[in-house]
Design brief:
InterPro entries: NUDIX_hydrolase-like_dom_sf, NUDIX_hydrolase_CS, NUDIX_hydrolase_dom. GO terms for molecular function: hydrolase activity. It contains three helices and seven strands; from the N terminus they run ββββαβββαα. Helix content is 23%, strand content 29%. The chain is globular, with a radius of gyration of 14 Å. The chain has helices at residues 50-62, 112-117, 123-134, and strands at residues 9-16, 19-24, 37-38, 41-43, 71-77, 83-90, 106-110. Strands 1, 2, 3, 4, 5, 6 and 7 form a seven-stranded mixed beta sheet that branches. It is of the alpha+beta class.
């Protein structure tokens, strides 16, 4: 089993139209990056594959059901945790179907360039988003 098979979680750069869907993290001292602007995703459960994990987490956190075919990019990173990052593009109209799950305080749509320069963005997500946009 390769190192990328042993992963802790997943994240998704989900574009609705031209804008990136972000979720403001809860203000809890026991979680990483409290209050910061996150993207859908989370921890692996019960031996899930990366694809199963990202699809489940996205549905739990945003109410949006994606199919494997919606995922257009993936890359494994091992710092600061072992995580797969994915990207998907859906029509802007799907924003009407977003329902915030039980994590996070609000969801926002923003241009990728705005996210990358936003002081509340999770810092290492900036370089991962840049990697996707430059691929």
């Amino acid at each position: 089993m390769g190192s990328s098979d042993r992963f802790d979680g997943t994240k998704l750069f989900l574009f609705l139209g031209e804008e990136l869907l972000t979720i403001r993290r809860d203000q809890r001292p026991d979680i990483p990056w409290p209050g910061r602007l996150d993207v859908p995703g989370g921890g692996r459960e019960h031996g899930e594959t990366p694809m199963q994990c990202v699809l489940r987490e996205t549905q739990e956190e945003t109410g949006l059901a994606l199919s494997p075919g919606d995922l257009v990019w993936k890359r494994f990173y091992d710092e600061p945790i072992r995580a797969w990052f994915f990207a998907a593009h859906l029509p802007k109209q799907r924003a009407q179907q977003v329902v915030l799950g039980n994590e996070g305080t609000e969801w926002l749509l923003m241009a990728p360039a705005v996210y990358m320069h936003h002081p509340e963005a999770v810092p290492h997500f900036r370089e991962r988003l840049t990697a996707y946009l430059n691929d």
